[in-house]
Please model this.
Amino acid sequence: MKRIHDFLKKISEEKGYDFFIYEKTNEIWVSGYKEGVKFDLVVKPIRKYQVKVIYEKPDERRVALFNNKNDAYNRLKKIFAEEVQQQSEEQTVETV
Model:
């Protein structure tokens, strides 16, 4: 969970998202606006190695249970990499 925590904290600082840790259950909450739409992300350890990720937008809710922390970390990287990729594509279109 340390690697997930560090990654989400870094992304939150870079993008200006709200970052919160609920100490009692060790849940990580991230909230902000992505592509102009409000989102909430909850990363919750279930058992020793399982991690539950909940990603919510006003019109959809995605829940995923991962059997290990590495898979959860890779999915979170993918979620936030899509945002970076879309922003770079928009900048490329604007310069052309």
